[in-house]
Amino acid sequence: MSKPFASRFRPEPADPHAFDTRPPAREPGPPGVLLVNLGTPDEPTAGAIRRYLAEFLSDPRVIEIPQWLWQIVLRGFILPRRPAALAPRYREIWMPEGSPLLVWSLAQARGLQQCFDAEGLPVRVQAAMRYGKPAVAAAIDSLREQGCERILTVPMYPQYAASTTATAVDAVAAAAGALRNQPELRFIKRFYTDEAYIGALAARVRAHWDAHGKPEKLLLSFHGLPRRVVEQGDPYYRDCMETADLLRRALGEDGALVEVSFQSRFGAEKWLEPYTEPTLKSWASAGVRRVDVMCPGFLADCLETLEEIQGQCRKAFLAAGGREFRYIPCLNDDPAWIDALAGLVRRHLGGWI
Fold first, then answer.
1. Shortest CA distance to 313 belongs to which of 257, 268, 275, 351?
2. Which residues are part of a known binding site?
3. N or C terminus of the chain with fewer C-beta within 10 Å?
4. Residue ranges of the domains in the chain?
5. If you classify domain 195-328 with CATH, what class do you get?
6. Which of 27, 33, 26, 36 is nearest to 116 (CA)?
7. Which residues are annotated as a binding site for Fe(2+)?
8. Do domains 32-192+335-348 and 195-328 have the same CATH topology?
9. Which phi and psi angles does 215 have, rounded to 5°?
């Protein structure tokens, strides 16, 4: 007897009622919530960083250059050199429990699970990294093992960009594409207009000012993108500007202190402006002495906030003549943010709970 062809789909658990003529009613199980953040190396070593960058920078949504050309640049020039240069920067921010991005992402998942447990809602929450571990496919497997046949994916980016939010959708779709018995899927596209998210940001700023006094300027530093992608239709810049306007309104008269910039420029082409570090240097040269910097596009502190902003940008501002540079941490596991996240997710679970 010939062997059956190997299937492209993963095997499913045996269903004892698969051939019943009158099977019992099927229960959908608890809804699952998948929180997806960008990703991080497993450890602050050149080898781990190389593996992470190879996956991250090979995503065509992240680097929109023909892959045959980009892979030559990536594997011939970037991966042999960049990881060793980044390792000390990662070591500088590494926490006892691991990468800050992963530590805070897991804390957010735990906090969200605790909210639903306290309400008696049968919801299961998992955190995943788009690049690195825990992988999206593994997190979906975990939710399915807990009986979840309906999964809401929450890309942990308040503002939409194809290089962040869309990559999370791609990863979930790819994982579902390998399944014979797919779960029902929903996605949150963006949530910067959510009043509770803006309220959590404003409360974070107010608490900081109550403890340390107000600055001369509050700079909102968003992650940058090549200007080209916005010209081609990416709505990210508009999302960032609207976020800033909403926060200005929430801060009332103090909203006049708010300015916007973009960080983490990569490569030679023109990115969204103004750039964060040059902005801070120009302010210091013009006589601005006290600034606060906040990164509303990041929900968890990471290399870009702790090392780039709190480290590099602080040094640049002080070296240019500034006197006081204060970084306002990301929302991380702030209770106000966890409550806001729970409310957001609860609304998107409508009809499932």
1. 275
2. 223, 304
3. N
4. 32-192+335-348, 195-328
5. alpha beta
6. 33
7. 223, 304
8. yes
9. -90, 180
